[in-house]
Write a structure and sequence with these properties.
The protein is built from 28 helices and 20 strands. The radius of gyration is 25 Å and the shape is globular.
Length: about 725
């Protein structure tokens, strides 16, 4: 039965308001616009683009803003367009069928509440920064596809994550844009009195008030807390202003709102989770909220925090995504309690006991406090996000389990996966639909379906790959032109971007967060060899994208080096850096690149998912054997660079850069350019099929969510 105050009625009211400004034949567009299911249902994106592609692009592909601002004459024209109405009927029917399927209970006692600091659903809802958010968004979408009773909980960042602009010197500049919440596909949740539902969380010396927004992700509701309210002062309102704010105190306030406020928001809506899934440690304070409630329910002598956490442990699982201790945020005690002290006092949880639970070694009073140790101690199950990451995590958190050997540390793994309907280009999705099975996406975790890729004719597979590469070339030309204009580059250099890239050349992609451990600089170590790889008739072109954290100066230097290298090599149109990397750019990159590079310093890649997305589109991975690739590579489905750990990082970088150049020169390029009489690279396509066949089932979100449901949620691990 639907809860009356879970936001579902508020969504319907917003749909009704939008429908009233639409011509009657288009009224179904209103409810489609308020459900992100349109982003992965076949034809959903075309539905809005076909009405006015340019205005839809200018709206940020936000259908609510698009329909709200579209002139009446254009709406009336669309309402008489037979093709548009036919597509609307088809998309509406598909979405209605999805929404009407019976719910599949994960646990009988209530839903799973999936807490995360960021969710990447679509570029029109910019509350994400990178891989953690993409994983969280894919999880919610797959939960919808499987009709599971899952709810998401996060924060609504008014200014989102940083936007990137490179200046003429090649240095990254950051800026932020505030969202117009009145035109987001999100609605304020209202309580029984008709007023916006609010929760209060003590932070600093005051009380932070937050309202709750609901976003429909197919069948899965996502609730986002927002502190932009008159009740809060300017500092408190800033808590939900920007994702991963530089101030440690602001981040702690964010995590208090996410963890404590998230539990209170669900409670206020009458949602009683059977299980809390903490996706990374940011939401660990949720366990303290539950511990406080447990204490209030107990009679007699007050239990110690350790005992309270033990009572609530069956309701928590924790997924860690960070393979190095330094990646887990820590705070000195003064900072920690300056922000959280009042909340802990109101929860009646002794500060010294919370401090001990937040340290790796509780008795080490000089040790800083962190949320990851608290999350591990609070959860019945902790998992890493790949096989190798599990090994690293057990070694890293060994001190939390005194007397244990690394193999005895109770940390398992669930390797990440990707949501195929989101990340697979429509032409590849259609091709596989014709050759695998009409219902193959429901069974994406079944290797038997993927075995049929061997039956796809060379000509069909190569045509799809060439179409996707051409689509990427068009994006590169358009975006590189705009990027150069915005930087104020010389007009001749701007014009050159109009012919950037060759749709027939081997195209290599590197796109991810520009952290130094990702080692993009390996590509730049030998400019002479790189130029030889690029500057031939049968050449290679590189598309690079990614943002450096505002405080990561070294990562900014690497990005600057890419722009300088293009000039020095005098091949500016064969190495292109695309600014302001986001989901829209990512979709085209993973679909269009022939080879996907990943060059992390092992063992610092927890999992990685961009290479999985490239593989699902028929791209081939060339990656260090770290993260997911150390378990995915089989010698025939891509290329690998040694993933051994080496204390001499300089020697390792020289060796790995040499291996990268050798593979590109001696294996990758010859295989790509060896063609039969019909101009088809038969050997290359053999490797593409091997990649699809061996990786498709293993690295889909279908398999990942199945592993969580059966291996962790229901097993009690």
């Amino acid at each position: 039965m639907t809860n009356r105050f879970d936001g579902s009625r508020d969504v319907q009211r917003a749909i009704d308001r939008l429908a009233r400004r639409l011509p009657e034949p288009l009224e179904d567009l209103a409810w489609i616009a308020y459900n992100y299911l349109w982003t992965w249902v076949p034809g959903g994106k075309d539905l809005f683009r076909n009405i006015d592609a340019h205005r839809f692009l200018l709206s940020g592909e936000n259908p609510v803003a698009f329909l709200t601002n579209l002139p009446e004459r254009d709406l009336l024209q669309a309402a008489t367009n037979g093709a548009t109405l036919a597509l609307l009927r088809d998309v509406s029917h598909q979405m209605e069928s999805e929404m009407q399927r019976p719910v599949q209970r994960v646990l009988g006692a209530g839903p799973v509440a999936f807490f995360c600091a960021e969710f990447a659903l679509h570029s029109s809802l910019p509350v994400y920064a990178g891989g953690l958010g993409v994983l969280a968004g894919d999880f919610l979408k797959e939960a919808s596809d499987q009709a599971l009773d899952v709810v998401g909980v996060g924060l609504l960042y008014r200014r989102g994550y940083l936007h990137q602009r490179m200046d003429l010197s090649g240095w990254q500049q950051e800026y932020w844009v505030e969202a117009n919440t009145d035109q987001l596909p999100a609605v304020r949740v209202r309580g029984a009195d008709g007023a916006p539902l609010k929760v209060i969380v003590p932070v600093w010396d005051g009380e932070l008030t937050a309202q709750v927004w609901r976003v429909n992700v197919g069948r899965t509701p996502l609730y986002l807390l927002d502190a932009e309210l008159a009740e809060n002062d300017a500092l408190e309102r800033w808590v939900t202003s920007r994702l991963y704010e530089g101030s440690g105190e602001i981040r702690l306030a964010q995590y208090a709102l996410l963890g404590i406020g998230g539990v209170r928001a669900l409670d206020a809506m009458g949602i009683m989770p059977a299980l809390f899934h903490l996706n990374e440690g940011h939401a660990a304070l949720a366990a303290l909220e539950i511990a406080s409630r447990t204490s209030a329910e107990m009679t007699g002598e007050r239990l110690a925090l350790e005992s309270l956490l033990e009572v609530g442990r069956e309701r928590f699982i924790f997924t860690t995504h960070t393979p190095v201790p330094a990646g887990n945020e820590t705070y000195d005690a003064d900072e920690y309690f300056s922000v959280l002290g009042r909340a802990l006092d109101e929860l009646k949880l002794p500060r010294e006991e919370v401090a001990g639970a937040s340290r790796v070694i509780p008795s080490e009073l000089s040790e800083p406090l962190g949320l990851s140790p608290l999350a591990i101690r609070s959860a019945r199950s902790t998992n890493a996000v790949s096989l190798r990451h599990g090994e690293v995590a057990r070694e890293m958190w060994l001190p939390l389990f005194p007397g244990s050997m690394p193999g005895e540390v109770p940390i398992t793994h669930v390797t990440n996966g990707v949501h195929l309907p989101t990340w697979m280009a429509p032409n590849m999705r259609s091709l596989l639909g014709r050759h695998l099975d009409a219902d193959w996406e429901r069974h994406a975790h079944d290797p038997g379906f993927w075995s049929h890729v061997e039956e796809i004719p060379d000509a069909e597979l190569w045509r799809v790959r060439c179409e996707s590469r051409m689509d990427l070339v068009e994006l590169v030309r358009r975006k590189a032109t705009v990027d150069r204009l915005a930087r104020g580059e010389d007009i001749e250099y701007v014009k050159a971007a109009l012919d950037a890239f060759d749709p027939g050349h081997l195209t290599v992609g590197f796109a991810r967060r520009l952290a130094t451990y990702k080692r993009l600089d390996l590509l730049l170590r030998d400019p002479a060899r790189l130029r030889a790889i690029i500057d031939q008739d049968q050449g290679t072109q590189f598309v690079i994208a990614g943002k450096a954290h505002p405080r990561d100066v070294e990562a900014k230097r690497v990005a600057s080096g890419i722009l300088a290298l293009k000039r020095d090599l005098d091949v500016p149109n064969r190495v292109v850096f695309l600014e302001d990397y986001d989901l829209r750019v990512a979709l085209r990159l993973v679909a269009g690149c022939d080879v996907w590079l990943n060059l992390p310093r092992p063992p610092l890649e927890a999992s990685g998912t961009s290479g999985m997305k490239a593989a699902m589109n028929g791209g081939l991975n060339l990656s260090v054997l770290d993260g997911w690739w150390s378990e995915g590579y089989d010698g025939q489905n891509g290329w690998a660079i040694d993933g051994s750990v080496d204390a001499d990082t300089q020697a390792q970088d020289i060796r790995d850069a040499g291996a990268l150049y050798d593979l590109l020169e001696n294996e990758v390029k010859p295989l790509f350019y060896t063609r039969d009489a019909n101009g088809i690279p038969v050997g290359w396509l053999t490797r593409v099929r091997a990649s699809l066949r061996t990786l498709g089932s293993k690295y889909s979100a279908t398999r990942m969510v199945d592993d969580y449901v059966e291996g962790i949620y229901r097993s009690g691990r």
